[in-house]
From TrEMBL:
<dbReference type="InterPro" id="IPR024050">
    <property type="entry name" value="AICAR_Tfase_insert_dom_sf"/>
</dbReference>
<dbReference type="GO" id="GO:0006189">
    <property type="term" value="P:'de novo' IMP biosynthetic process"/>
</dbReference>
<dbReference type="GO" id="GO:0003937">
    <property type="term" value="F:IMP cyclohydrolase activity"/>
</dbReference>
<dbReference type="GO" id="GO:0004643">
    <property type="term" value="F:phosphoribosylaminoimidazolecarboxamide formyltransferase activity"/>
</dbReference>
<keyword id="KW-1133">Transmembrane helix</keyword>
<feature type="transmembrane region" description="Helical">
    <location>
        <begin position="150"/>
        <end position="173"/>
    </location>
</feature>
<feature type="transmembrane region" description="Helical">
    <location>
        <begin position="110"/>
        <end position="130"/>
    </location>
</feature>
<dbReference type="InterPro" id="IPR024051">
    <property type="entry name" value="AICAR_Tfase_dup_dom_sf"/>
</dbReference>
<protein>
    <submittedName>
        <fullName>ATIC protein</fullName>
    </submittedName>
</protein>
<dbReference type="Pfam" id="PF01808">
    <property type="entry name" value="AICARFT_IMPCHas"/>
</dbReference>
<dbReference type="InterPro" id="IPR016193">
    <property type="entry name" value="Cytidine_deaminase-like"/>
</dbReference>
<dbReference type="GO" id="GO:0005829">
    <property type="term" value="C:cytosol"/>
</dbReference>
<dbReference type="InterPro" id="IPR002695">
    <property type="entry name" value="PurH-like"/>
</dbReference>
<keyword id="KW-0472">Membrane</keyword>
<keyword id="KW-0812">Transmembrane</keyword>
<feature type="transmembrane region" description="Helical">
    <location>
        <begin position="83"/>
        <end position="104"/>
    </location>
</feature>
Amino acid sequence: MQGMIEVRLREAPDVVCQCTPSGTLRASKDLQDLSREAVRRDKKERLEAACNIRRKSEAGKRREAASIEQALDMVARERSHEFLCPFLLCVCLPVAILTNLAGIPPTSGLGAVFLSIFALSLSFCASCFISMKVSCTAKGHAEVAYGRDAACWTTLFLLLGLFTLLLLVAMTVQHSLHGYWWTVFLIWPGVCLTCYWGANRALEGAGEVDSEIWHRRLREAEANVRERSIVFKGKVIREQGRACICSWPGKYEGAWDTMVATAREGNVSAAVVFLPDGTPEFGKHSRIPQNEPFKGPCWCEPLYGGKKPWGCRWFALWIQNVEEAVKSGAVLEVYFFANMVGKGTVATFATAGAENKRRERLEVQKGMFTQSATFQAALGSGLACLSKKPRADSSSPYDREVHRIFLTSLTDEEREFLESSEGLGNSQKAEVAWLEHKGYAYIKRDVADWLEEEAVALKGLQPSPKVVTSSKTIPDKAQKDLILASIAIKYTQSNSVGYSKNGMMVGVGAGQQSRVDCVKLAGRKVATWWLRFHPKVKGLPFKDGVKRQDRVNARVRYIEGDMEELRHVLWEAERTEWLKNFDSPPEPLTAEEKSTFLKGLDDVAISSDAFFPFRDSIDHATRLGVKFVAQPGGSVADKEVIDACNTYGMTMAFTQLRLFHH
């Protein structure tokens, strides 16, 4: 329109605001909708970045703790073998002999001298060994020396030292009782010298552990932990019809960690493979089988257009996993970048390498562009002020703006090529092309289904639901009902479904093993709530003086029809008690009357704390006037459920937020 200004968000061109300029243009006043959306997106970006930093920090701490734990185990096993023989010979045997000596009464002066010197020699032998081992504790190296059993070893050494002293005391008493009290001058000066020497040895750290051994074990443990926690060679569950993740965008590190952890627990089938730098199979290559029509010394040629330092062993392992999944009748799934499902594929597997080389050349060109005057001018105009903290997809506002500026410097053909490449990672493009080359069908998924829920849950930030049905309209009133239902089921027992209408919860079903049972349980309450407005229910002939709660209970029993059923069984007394609420027996509410009246129920909202696994929940919900549905999504049968909603004209949104507690 003439005289109108149109403003769009750079990262969301569909967010647009129009205004008529009049003097100074203020974003907070003249561009309110756009300004609010920009603030919301900025807040979400910062929260995602904070979550990403915290996730990496916690993952690093977990790996470090696991490495130390494993190193302690390794040291403990080594020390247990090293200590056993010396401990038995230098401590256990002398203490055992000393125990016997303490009980032998001397029969002569010469015998008393011999027993005293022999006992002193045994105690000195035990003291030498104990002082050397206790020295590690004195220097704060107990765990390094003994591993996780440090406390046990240290306590044992100290107790044995104390026991040795008690034996010498017992020997001294024994000698004194037999008249050889003077042996105290033989035993105890030697004991004092031995203790003094042992204490000095301990404090000086003469037995201090070789720290190189500890650091070597720690490095080995770190490598093992890295191998277990980061390396993933796939875990295919051989089950007919089971969904199997066969391609994954690696730049979503948080979602990757969640997926791998879930797969290792056996809850998800995954064919994807990751062999990072620093692991044994990184950089290894695999030859192309002779029965394949592709040329090259290894898979790197068709994958990347040339040999790469990270190798192609991963692709050979990936093919094995995919073949295993196909043989077991699995449903293959490919995950695309968030909100980019179906984009970023290459023409064919045969062209994947050439297209990759073209992207690499443009990436080199991008590096050269950052040295250009155009880029330096952008830095001076505020580009340098943008945050460089990455969000869930490993990109930062700075990175994305640099990429947008770079795209403007390209020709139309190059720009379109790069833009059309977005949606899948480089290795993913080859994976998907291979599936198509082999004729394997796959389902396209959005990685947003796996993104961490923390970023949207913190500080009251609402998640951004995705409307997945043909009907896209959710009125404000229905949005409030869906939010209310979602909040309510968050605080109920897991496997929960809630119905809401007009700002009220009208039915909650929780704790059932089957989700459709939750839907039916809550649906009974919805039907009862709505039938309260039936003319027959509103006109029930209550006696004067019947309390409000008694009236509510009597109406529910009337609507449910319990009392009519009781007329023909032995519990007539219960019906008689119920009839005391009325002046005259009410006329029954027939099934046909209920069905007819329930047809007037409409615009009901339903929310589920986890995905609907089958369409049966939707089939039942439509009988209760449900028009709006909220659920996390993520089921193998999502398409089936979406089709059911489309059939009934419902609007369904995937909240991408699971609310169950287990």
